[in-house]
Design goal:
One of its GO terms (molecular function) is oxidoreductase activity. This is SDR family oxidoreductase. The structure is a single chain. The chain starts with 15 loop residues before the first strand and ends in a 9-residue tail after the last strand. By secondary structure, the chain is an alpha/beta fold. It is 35% helix and 12% strand. Helix 3 runs parallel beside helix 4 (155-178). It has one domain (16-233): NAD(P)-binding Rossmann-like Domain (Rossmann fold), CATH 3.40.50. It has a 6-stranded parallel beta sheet with strand order 2-1-3-4-5-6, sandwiched between helices.
């Protein structure tokens, strides 16, 4: 049975946790769980609505938010990126056929799901401490797995999450040369009762609350070791195929 809140005891208790996308369901629940754990001296909740705000599609905004976190002058131990795009009013929903491919939709999917997290890694990974456990974890998706793609569809979402997985893997290799105890991982959160997943939830599909998903994700991160860096993991901790 999953504990109500993870204790995150694998992390030193001297630092900061940062959640990006904290206004969303999983992000908000992750902030609550991190604060309840008592493991971090500060838990920053960043989103477009926070102060300072962060826009994952604007590198200047990302850099400013990272500099604001850095001003606390404490080790940044955990960064959890909960941003993501699947559908919205302005850009529509996932494509069921290549006949529905649209450049604007594709560009937005890559901007949010791949380029934004890449810019976050660019600015925050160099600040993670060289000693003691530290982690950058981003929410990917099982449908981003090329090996596991047996049904097709959802072109932009699949491709942008596959790109994210490659970015995570590549960054992890570079980190291993400089910050050997730092993790960089992608995690599939599973179907969660959020605005992102709600239109696509199927009858009989296991749908978890944001609080349960957040706890599962943080428990996975807590169990991961430096040798796991660069991996793609399910919400239960099992590795997923690329």
């Amino acid at each position: 049975m999953i504990a109500q809140f993870p204790n995150l005891s694998s992390f030193p208790d001297d630092g900061i946790a940062v959640v990006i996308g904290a206004s969303g369901g999983i992000g908000h629940a992750s902030v609550d769980a991190l604060r309840a754990s008592g493991r971090f001296k500060i838990v920053h909740a960043l989103s477009r609505r926070s102060n300072p705000p962060i826009d994952i599609t604007d590198e200047t905004s990302i850099q400013a938010a990272v500099e604001w976190v850095q001003a606390d002058d404490l080790p940044i131990r955990l960064v959890l990126d909960c941003t993501g795009f699947l559908h919205d009013r302005d850009h529509g929903g996932p494509e069921k056929s290549y006949r529905r491919l649209d450049p604007a939709h594709m560009a937005h999917a890559f901007a949010v799901n791949a380029i934004g997290p890449a810019m976050m890694m660019k600015h925050i990974l160099p600040l993670l401490p060289r000693t003691g456990k530290a982690a950058f974890a981003t929410l990917s998706a099982k449908v981003g797995s090329i090996t596991d793609n047996h049904f097709g569809g959802w072109y932009s979402y699949r491709a942008s999450k596959a790109a994210l997985n490659q970015l995570v893997r590549t960054a992890a290799i570079e980190l291993s040369r400089r910050q050997g105890e730092t993790l960089c991982v992608a995690i599939h959160p599973g179907t969660t009762d959020t605005a992102l997943s709600e239109p696509f939830s199927k009858t009989g599909l296991t749908v978890r609350s944001s609080a349960e998903t957040a706890t599962r994700l943080l428990n996975v991160i807590d169990r991961l070791e430096s040798a796991d860096s660069g991996g793609f993991f399910n919400h239960d901790g099992t590795p997923l195929p690329w």
